[in-house]
Amino acid sequence: MFELLGIPPQALFGQLLLGLINGSFYAMLSLGLAIIFGLLNIINFTHGAQYMLGAFVAWMLLNFLGIGYWWALLLAPLIVGATGIVIERLLISRLYHLDHLYGLLLTFGLALILQGVLRNEYGISGLPYGMPSALSGGQNLGFMFLPNYRGWIIVASLVVCLGTWFVIEKTRLGAYLRAATENPTLVGAFGINVPLMITLTYGFGVALAGFAGVLAAPIYSVNPNMGADLIIVVFAVVVIGGMGSIMGSIVTGFGLGLIEGLTRVFYPEGSAVVIFVIMAIVLMIKPAGLFGRTA
User: Fold this and answer.
1) Quick check: 39 and 178 in contact, CB under 8 A?
2) What is the pLDDT of residue 114?
3) Strand (E) or helix (H) holding 96
């Protein structure tokens, strides 16, 4: 087998696969953040905790109710999204006319509360969550071995991300959502319930984080801190793609995952910071982000 700069193909493609896996989570989480910020102008720092909550809900459904992975993929995002709707109605809706800092501080505090409650109840050692038997094993592609579950994560995240982009950018519902952020009074004059639309939009963005959490549960241990470090990287992804840019979040999420994977191959010491280095460079060249629009 050929080698690229002395790197065996199994190692190269293995790291690229891991990069795509990470990129899948970056894309889904940054997509949820972009929807919430782009349509509601709220910096949702609770997003990492809601991703963690999706994994915990899947674990609880299995261990307390015997509900397996496939149903959890549907139920956990709905449950996490419902908690988001309650948070938006009771707390966040009061902050729309205030500075962004208030929303950031509120959601950051909520994230600490969620993590603290689950850490107190379950500790930080991590809880196992088995992958579905239908996705066990893998495929030998010749140049690498592709585990079925990891392939499923990439496909599922692509379908969800592109489907979300299509609904927001290409359908009448998406047009209403975008119009409601620009001129809610005018949209309301057409008989559209703008507050309900805003609430459901926040719930959907949160549900995306919950869906990502269920996908992550079988390959990462379910623990209260699983979203704490990830959310910092995801915010960097959102900034690089452009705050509020739907397609920017998707393309940047997958792209940065691949770059991170390549960095692990050729310069492992830099893999933890490469995304932040790229963010600094992008902000110097284009402060609005790669896909962002300047005011």
Assistant:
1) yes
2) 93
3) none
